Give the backbone structure.
Amino acid sequence: MQHPAAEHDLRDPHGPYDPYQPPPKATTLAEVARHAGVSPSTVSCVINGKRNISPPTRLRVQAAIDELGYLPHAGARALASSKSRIVALAVPLRADLYVPAMMQIAIAVTTAARRHDHDVLLITNHEGPEGIRRVAGTGLADAVILMDVELHDERIAVLRELGVAASLIGLPADPEGLPCVDLDFAAAGALAADHLADLGHRQVAFIGMGEGVYRRRTGFAERTRSGFEDRCRERGLRAIHRPCDSTYDGAAGVLARVFEDRPGTTALVVQNEAMIGPLLGLLRSSGREVPQDVSVLAIGPDEPAARQSSPRLTSIGLPAHDLGHRAVELVLGENAGEPGVIMLPPRLAVWESTAEPPGG
Amino acid sequence: MQHPAAEHDLRDPHGPYDPYQPPPKATTLAEVARHAGVSPSTVSCVINGKRNISPPTRLRVQAAIDELGYLPHAGARALASSKSRIVALAVPLRADLYVPAMMQIAIAVTTAARRHDHDVLLITNHEGPEGIRRVAGTGLADAVILMDVELHDERIAVLRELGVAASLIGLPADPEGLPCVDLDFAAAGALAADHLADLGHRQVAFIGMGEGVYRRRTGFAERTRSGFEDRCRERGLRAIHRPCDSTYDGAAGVLARVFEDRPGTTALVVQNEAMIGPLLGLLRSSGREVPQDVSVLAIGPDEPAARQSSPRLTSIGLPAHDLGHRAVELVLGENAGEPGVIMLPPRLAVWESTAEPPGG
DNA sequence: ATAGTCATAGACAGCGCTGTCAGGCTCTTG
DNA sequence: CAAGAGCCTGACAGCGCTGTCTATGACTAT
């Protein structure tokens, strides 16, 4: 497992050479200092930019660092500076959430964190809120980002209690003191209603998330729904709302009931991303052409997914990348920790799945 | 012993909660020791179980720990023990991979790591192989798990060079010295062929991954294909293989060509999970019933996904959970680091999407 | 020319924990 | 009853780095 003989001795080349060094001992800051002919603290300062170092010295130190391939020991830094440079990301374990979006956010968080010279530690809800207490309490992480925030999320209490830097992706009932970022789902709902109203639709259906989602954390699902319904009312659209579980048969049932209850429905707004594919298939096989007979507007899928469907979907995407980056910015950036709620404006991408209603 | 120097009282967990506690100073091991009337090293031993502690002492210490809500400082432990108790998980950034499976594996890795009292650090390919060098070199992580391993993966060289504990999910061209775990895709391909042959099919098509996947890292995709084709030959099946990109139109084109080139095709094996939904829809809308007219066997989707389709899919699932757990076991478990290749046997779940060929 | 100022580098004391070591204790045995 | 054998425990020396404080030198202004 270990590298038997390093090609060059990483220790002081002018000092006594000890050939018996089985483990590939990591270079220390002290060795770099000796190599550069400066004191350890100078090296530390060069690395952290904590004080003015004259260019020649900085260069010498830099050269020594490169030459020795020096990497500072993370634990030692964390101990001495009481900063771990690690952000904990609490990801959901839910089955009824759209996974690709979560993954995209997680990746966005990771790349954004790296830009701030931080790493990302994954914690799942498996441990429950105690996981947060653990990583924050041990100093493993010095910031926490919560995903899939519920309206009354028990993790929030832990965050407040610990006073740890944190940001939320999602909007709880009481965001007091905690920075949050989320898509403005109410505006998204309204935007969807507007688009359909503008096209001339008069009777529309909102196919939402599974019932469990509404029951549990009415957050984004409920916001979308009410934003949509309010705007429908304003624009004189008749709207119905139907929750939809993430199963093919569930989608089939919902779709059948929609056209049974409201045969005049000419447009569907779909929030449960996992069901868009099946719904399109069902519409097709029931002889309804999209968008000639019925328009479909999706809320939530990412751009590429929407463009890969057939027909290409008119949709309001989830800005996964933005959400991740903003969350990191809120917790590590300039104005880190300043509470505040950022609602990202929804953007409607019009493609081929919406059109004027038949005979419209 | 108890100098009044520490008149700074320890918070009573049952007392009123004071929201104004700007510096929630963390308890240290020394404080616990004082509180329990023992020496710091004794407390350390109680925590790490490094030596025999008499039950009464252990109990006193345990009580003090609980009472003070003590959590050891991760950085200090890492420094003193040169073990970070962190596993780095290198996740892919690819767009052409099935994301839900990746997420499931990541979650399995995380829960398994927790069982070994480790945490998981996320690193993306964004940093390239240098990310691995960084987390291992700084002692941030003391083990690395690679996902989405390519046949000739440049990250493997870094792993070998650093001599860091590692395990791979996937199978590179040369796994020498590195423990690997993967689904036995060749066996999966053979199993698929057997199932279809048993049902009486004579002419079948394999709809594979996107061409890029074959070009880049022929690993699992190529293994599946050859396992399938070899077995088809043995069983006297006529088989064709078609790569399939992850777009609706791509799937449509592939499907059309399959039936054009081989009108007698009665069964499809699909490996590109993202395209299963679209393919089922296309079959339906082209008037082919599944499984009456054509059988469909999926390789890769997880059980729940397969059961949510309509019809429920006969499939060989990717054992995401097992893969994650095994990978952790290989790198942290009893026989950690022992190189060896674990090929998980494929399991075929027969549901409704396969049947005898028409007129069979 | 001399005192005062600033810029720069070094010394040093920890950060909180681990792990080794030797010593003190009780218990056993001749 | 005394000496040997174990079992616990406390003392102690770092792990590698940070950050503050002080010392040194060069430079400016009088």
User: Anything to note?
Assistant: Residues 26, 28-30, 40-41, 44-45, 47-48, 50-51, 72-73, 75-82 of chain B lie near DNA strand C (CB under 10 Å from a C1'). Chain B touches chain A through 68 residues (CB under 8 Å). The two ends of chain B are 89 Å apart (CA to CA). The mean pLDDT of chain B is 88.
